[in-house]
Structures are given as structure tokens and as C-alpha cells.
Amino acid sequence: MSLLDRLERWWRPLTVPHLTEIILTGQILIYIMSFQEPGLWERLVLVSGLVKQGEFWRLLTFPFLPSSGHPILFFLGCMAFYFIGRTMEANWGTTRYNMYLGIGYVITVAASFLFPEWPTGNAFLGTSVFLAFAYHFPDVTFRIYFILPIKARWLAYVTWGVIAYSVYHGPNPVRVIALAGVANFFIFHTVPLLQRLRGKARQAQVRAADRRRENTAVHCCTVCGVTEKIDPAMEFRYCSQCAGSLCYCSLHLRDHVHRTEADAR
After folding, report:
1. Contacts of 48 (CB under 8 A, 6+ apart)
2. Is residue 29 part of a domain?
3. What is the pLDDT of residues 189-220, one digit of tens each?
4. 107 and 70 in one domain?
5. How do strand 148-151 and strand 141-144 relate by DSSP bridges?
6. How many CB atoms lie within 10 A of CB 242?
7. Which of the four pLDDT bands, split at 50, 70 and 90, describes residue 87?
8. Which H, E and C letters describe 86-104, residue by residue?
9. What does the alpha-carbon distance between residue 70 and residue 64 come to, in Å, rounded to a whole number?
């Protein structure tokens, strides 16, 4: 039993059904409430320094922050997260899906305490769900703004590029929070990724061996050295009277000098 399987057994009593719908419902409610309270986002985002001062609700509210303030982008983000989250829950099972988000949540919260004044949202945590989806379903096609079709694998490459850019060029808080937000992806997929890479390496070795066998001649005339690769129409026979059953082409089969074991030495 793998470490994730053992952890899943421990996590099972903590499983929350319909977690995707709960997260989206919270985001929709906060999005609607933000029209009446413009500063609501600042009061709900995770700031570990304020948590230490007693604002513990921030630990619970930051996962429910809307993905965007623009109505169209928020609507598209909700649709995408619903589809991706439901698909991953069906693929993994409710407990493992909960565990994936839960581990990402715990690591993100822990990382936020390294920078007490830095506001931490849920962007990278939500991104980790999409990266897991793209890993398992790389050929699913999304339509950007319902128009431009693009496969999940290419969106994932772009996403990894954005994360790498943030880690390389961003300030230290952004670097740490970005890595923390996708740490659950590596926890869940490092071993399968290594196994996939080893499998691809073995397949490449097999293909290379097949190509070498295809390019290697099976028959070679002892007299003139012609092979079936040089002359595909040539016929070859093996002489039963020669020591070692030597091969000869049809031009030299009948008139060659039989070789003995002494000749071979």
C-alpha cells in the first residue's frame, strides 16, 4: 500500500461531500456581497499577521474568494472549476479529491505564516486542481471564451510557464506561495511522473533496438559480402558442407570452395 493510500484511509473520516459545489457557492455569495461591501475581499483574504491578532476567520474564508472581479471571467472561472472539480472527484473518489485540496490548503496556510504581512489568496491552490486535471485528461478540449479550442495539455504548459515566471521573477512571498499552492500536485504525481518517464525511456530503447534490428542484415555472403539490405532481390543459402554453415549468395553458392574447421581457424 502506497503512502497516499495510507493517508487516504486516515483522511476518510474528514471527507466533505460535494466540496466543489461548496467552494463555488461560497465564492458566488462573496462575489454578490462584494457589490454591497467593496472592501470585503481585504477582510477575508489570508494575512497571517492579522490571524495572529485574532482574525481567525481568514483561515476559513480565503478559499472562498472569487477567482476574478470581472463578471464574465468570474462566470467562466466558476464553470471551469465546476467541470474540473467534478471530473477529478469522479476520477479519484471523494476522499482523495478532498485530500488533494486539503493538503494544498494546509501547505498554503503554513507558507503564509512565513510572510505575516503578505495577503494570500487561493489562485495557486485552484490552479493545482487544473494541473491535476490536465495531467490525467490532457486531450480534453476547452473553448476559450466559447470560441478558441485548445487542449488541456497546452493550457497546462502555459500555466506551468506562468508559475515558473512567478517563481523566477516574483518577490519572495510570491515564490513561496506559488510553490506551496502546487505542492499537492507534486505530492500526488511525482511517483507516477517518474514511472511514466521510465516507461517512455524503455519504449524509446525498444524502438531504437527495433530500428537497429531493421538496419542489421540477417544474411551476408561469405565470398562477396552482399546482404539482403544491399540487394533485396538476392537469394541466400547456407552450405551444409562448410564448417559453421556459412552463408552464400545465389551467385557463389555452387562454385565456392568448401571450408573446413582448419580454414575457419
Report:
1. 109, 112, 113, 115, 116, 118, 120
2. yes
3. 886 666 666 767 777 777 777 777 777 777 88
4. yes
5. antiparallel
6. 19
7. very high
8. HHHHHHHCHHHHHHHHHHH
9. 16
**Residues composing the chain:** 265
CA–CA dist 255, 8 (Å, integer):
77
Quote the number of domains for the chain: 2
Do 143 and 70 form a contact (C-beta atoms < 8 A)?
Answer: no
pLDDT of residue 30: 93
Burial profile 81-116: b = 16 or more Cβ within 10 angstroms, e = fewer: beebbebbbeebeebbbbbbbbbbbebbbebbeebe
Q: Provide the pLDDT for residue 170.
A: 85
Q: Same structural domain for residues 174 and 221?
A: no
Note the pLDDT of residue 110. Answer: 93
Give the mean model confidence (pLDDT) for residues 145-170: 88
Are 75 and 68 spatial neighbours (Cβ–Cβ below 8 Å)? no
Whether 264 has a pLDDT exceeding 60, the answer reads no
What is the mean predicted confidence (pLDDT) over 65-86? 89
Residue 56 and residue 123 in one domain: yes
* Residue 231 located in a structural domain: yes
Provide the grid cell at 31: 462575489
User: What residue has cell string 476547452?
Assistant: 142
Give the residue carrying C-alpha cell 494570500: 120
Please indicate, yes or no, if residue 124 is contained in any of the structural domains. yes
Is residue 251 pLDDT above 70, yes or no?
Answer: yes
